[in-house]
From TrEMBL:
The chain crosses the membrane at residues 86-105, 117-137, 157-178, 208-229, 235-257, 264-286, 306-331, 431-454, 466-485, 491-512, 519-541, 547-565. The lineage of its organism: Eukaryota, Viridiplantae, Streptophyta, Embryophyta, Tracheophyta. Residues 520-569 form the Cationic amino acid transporter C-terminal domain. It comes from the Eukaryota. This is Cationic amino acid transporter 8, vacuolar. The keyword Acetylation does not apply.
């Protein structure tokens, strides 16, 4: 009798390793079921209303953002950053040219010597946002930053609107920095004409007719360095940032030694309204720390390194900004401060003409490191957005050698280079402020939701109470902002909304919290997040009608993209198990009708 032969089990065929650079097939760009063919897309569009309802109510989870989405990148990012790296990455990202350009303008026109108070107000608001970012980044150390955090707590749709504004700011912000770098460099060579390195094209319309090849080169070089490796970029940033810190302290010391206290009188020439108006503008000198929060996925010990890196750096930057603002207003009477080159002119007036070159060097260094860190942060935002399939997942791929998201970096680089080549700085000053403040405000809301609402755990009665109190905090903050901007003189208009805000926050503090931070948490919840909501809304209210109009126009364009593309791709990913059988059944029914 023959013995039965046992065949070896069939092994799956070896996977063919695909080249990183050969990923341009339709399956790589639109792999979702809704985009398989024209009939699939038509069916997806016919289901837009039901799918929109599904995505509006859907929230991601910590586990999904931490463990599932990174699989789309195929290769993990390298964990190579410590708290020391994060401190200097934040310093390099935040301390750009803004402190040198905005301070003089706002001291002259809005705040006077009280510009230092404007920096204190903005610094407190920025620190409150840093607290919120830190708690999320410690517990959910992923590359998506605020996009991932909002997606978990406020849902897919809100996160997409935030993501769209983040991406828009990334493109326009990088382009603006490139143009500013070009202007500063040109002014060091020819102080009379900062545009002399640009090419004028008469047939193009005003604002787009000064072509800037220098800005394009700077963007390509900075992004090329960022693509080469996270550790290399971090090392370069902290070396240059340490050197520029010494130069900044030199500026501060000279200002205090050669300045006069008599120049600080009157201290509030434009009143409290002028201080807050200036605070809304100088706030942009503090932006950039959110880019560092996207480095959480590459941090060795997030629970230790992120709080020390983010909070430590922003505290140091706040002190430096206040000292620089104070030294400037001591060097010159606020009525004599130059609007465009405040520090350079101030040094020239006291006989230190050579110091203007020092200021330009520090400003150019600041813009360069802002570009480097911004490039890293923008690419990581884009990576997580692509992991969620809101844009083609091709842009989520991480290069196996560099450990960086090269495709995502190329996307932001090429787009910002094109914008910087044609667009002038005044055209580029679009929706920065509104978008950033909105995201920071939403982060505070998301933190409150995270603490007070856990699905299937929070009782319905507590959930309704929380929503009512959150609505009252929101409404009273908006009311206080409106009253302030209408310039009401009576005290009752201020006391009523302020009292509602206080009592609502107090009542919320007595509600039970259903989730507590595991490692590091924001102190004094709900007070600090509630204050952050109020301050961000107040600063938004100081921006004017044009900022509102631009924000809503950009958001409307993003909504169109979401309804025609993003909605269906994310729906497919969320329901991918049942989509195949549904489409097969639909096609079978269609074929029966034809027969």
């Amino acid at each position: 009798m023959d013995e039965p032969t046992t065949e070896p089990p069939h092994e799956p065929p070896p996977s063919v390793e695909r080249s990183y650079w050969r990923r341009w097939s339709k399956q790589d760009i639109f792999p979702e079921e809704s985009f398989r063919d024209c009939s699939s897309y038509k069916y997806a569009l016919s289901q837009t209303c039901s799918r929109l309802k599904d995505r509006l109510l859907d929230r991601s989870s910590d586990a999904n953002e931490l463990f599932e989405l990174p699989k789309v990148s195929e290769v993990g990012m390298k964990k190579c950053l410590t708290w020391w790296d994060l401190i200097w990455l934040a310093f390099g990202s935040v301390v750009g040219s803004g402190i040198f350009t905005i301070t003089g303008l706002e001291a002259r026109d809005d705040a006077g010597p009280a510009i230092v108070v404007s920096y204190v107000v903005s610094g407190i608001s920025a620190l409150l946002s840093v607290f919120c970012y830190t708690e999320f980044a410690v517990e959910i150390p992923v590359a998506g930053g605020s996009f991932s955090f909002l997606r978990i707590e406020l849902g897919d749709f809100i996160a997409f609107i935030a993501a769209g504004n983040i991406f828009l700011e990334a493109i326009v912000g990088a382009a603006g920095l490139g143009r500013s770098w070009s202007s500063y460099f040109a002014s060091m060579i020819n102080t009379d004409n900062p545009d002399f390195l640009r090419i004028k094209v008469n047939f193009l319309s005003e604002g787009f007719n000064l072509l800037d090849p220098i800005a394009v080169v700077v963007l390509l070089v900075a992004n090329g360095i960022a693509m080469s490796g996270t550790r290399r970029t971090s090392f370069l940033t902290w070396i240059t940032s340490v050197l520029s810190t010494f130069l900044i302290f030199f500026v501060i010391v000279v200002g205090f030694m050669r300045g006069k206290s008599s120049n600080l009188v009157p201290f509030f020439p434009f009143g409290a309204k002028g201080v807050f108006r200036a605070a809304a503008v100088v706030y942009w000198s503090y932006t950039g720390f959110d880019m560092v929060a996207t480095m959480a996925e590459e941090t060795k010990q997030p629970s230790r390194d992120i709080p020390v890196g983010l909070i430590g750096s922003m505290s140091m930057i706040s002190v430096i900004y206040c000292l620089m603002a104070l030294s400037l207003t001591m060097l010159q009477k606020y009525t004599e401060i130059d609007r465009n080159a405040a520090f350079s002119v101030a040094f020239d007036k006291i006989g230190m003409t050579w110091a203007k070159y020092l200021v330009s060097i520090v400003a150019i260094k600041g813009m360069t490191t802002s570009l480097l860190v911004g490039s890293m942060g923008q690419a990581r935002y884009t990576t997580q957005i692509a992991r969620a399939h809101l844009i083609p997942p091709l842009f989520a791929l991480v290069h196996p050698k560099t450990g960086t998201p090269v495709y995502a970096t190329l996307l932001t680089t090429i787009t910002s280079a094109i914008v910087s080549f044609f667009s002038s700085l005044d055209v580029l000053s679009t929706v920065f402020s509104f978008s950033t403040l909105s995201i920071f405000m939403l982060m505070a809301v998301a933190l409150l939701v995270r603490r007070y609402y856990v699905k299937d755990t929070t009782p319905r009665s507590d959930y309704i109470k929380f929503l009512i109190l959150l609505f009252l905090i929101f409404g009273s903050s908006i009311a206080l902002t409106v009253v302030w901007n209408l310039d009401r003189q009576g005290w009752i208009e201020y006391v009523v909304p302020a009292s509602i805000w206080f009592l609502s926050t107090l009542a919320m503090s007595f509600l039970p919290k259903y989730r507590l931070p595991k490692v590091w948490g924001v102190p004094l919840v709900p007070w600090l997040p509630s204050l952050s909501i109020g301050m961000n809304l107040a600063l938004i209210g100081s921006l004017g009608r044009v900022a509102f109009l631009r924000f809503f126009i950009c958001s409307a364009v993003m909504l169109l993209y979401y309804l025609f593309v993003g909605l269906h791709s994310t729906y497919d990913v969320a329901h991918q198990d049942g989509l195949g059988s549904q489409n097969e059944e639909r096609k079978e029914n269609a074929s029966r009708v034809v027969c």
